[in-house]
Amino acid sequence: MRIRATVAAVCGALALSAFVAPGAHATGSTGSDGEPYELDLTFSSVKVNNGKPIVAGISKKVVAPVTYSIRHAASVDINADDFRMEIGLYRGSYDNKDDVMFDGEPTCTETSSTTATCKSAIDLTPGDSLRFNGNATTWWAWGIAVALNGVDSDSDGDDWSKVGRVYQDIPTTTVKLQRASRLTVNAAPEPVKKGRTVTVTGKLSRANWEDLQYHGYTGQSVQLQFRKKNSDTYTTVKTVTTDSVGNLKTTTTATVDGYFRYSFAGTTTTPAVSAAGDYVDVQ
Length: 283
Prior knowledge:
Elements: H1 7-14, H2 16-20, E1 37-38, E2 41-48, E3 54-56, E4 62-72, E5 83-92, E6 97-102, E7 107-110, E8 115-124, E9 138-147, E10 164-179, E11 181-188, E12 197-208, E13 213-216, E14 221-228, E15 235-241, E16 247-253, E17 258-264, E18 273-274, E19 278-280
């Protein structure tokens, strides 16, 4: 499929509302009053990041795969040089979006004369496309397709009624965008005599996309867990709450050799994370 430009670029040249405003739909195979007509194409089976949350830190670009299917009229040439298509994500409401992002150029495989499966990806870079912590929320999907049909997108004099476009909300497809989390642990003293007190400290922090640093995640419930030496299973000892800077501190009694760790279940904006176990030799 030969797509030479993104929908975002086309809409920038023609004014976004001309193509994708929810109320600007025309019907039939040609438009009226110089407006684009409704393209006979629908999106389905849209999946972003394989249905899992997208987790981003403070520096590394994250690439989230996008897959979907399309069905279109036989008259729609999805292989035309001037056919453009994108999956967008938005937060807020469909009619009043707080923010948007788009995937890159898709690769489509035709499964019949009127159907195809497509794949693409959305790139997210902290400090660029990710600049606000408010982006850590649920995002909804919508699909956009534009058939220019020979119209010059850089010209103001062409007849836009020859252009077909579709703007489809896909409310069944959502994806969570989350701020990466970190969790540390330290159990002391090491070694320790049986029956003595072990102090376990640590810190829970998460990415801040506005200053590109990790900051303590305050007021969060975190489980102190323990597993015996030669065991693969952790059990919860107690629940500890992070303080005003994300620190953790509690005490427990030394009984047998084993590993202590902190484990955080996560929130809607922050993924679950567990610290690597810290071994304590009980003598």
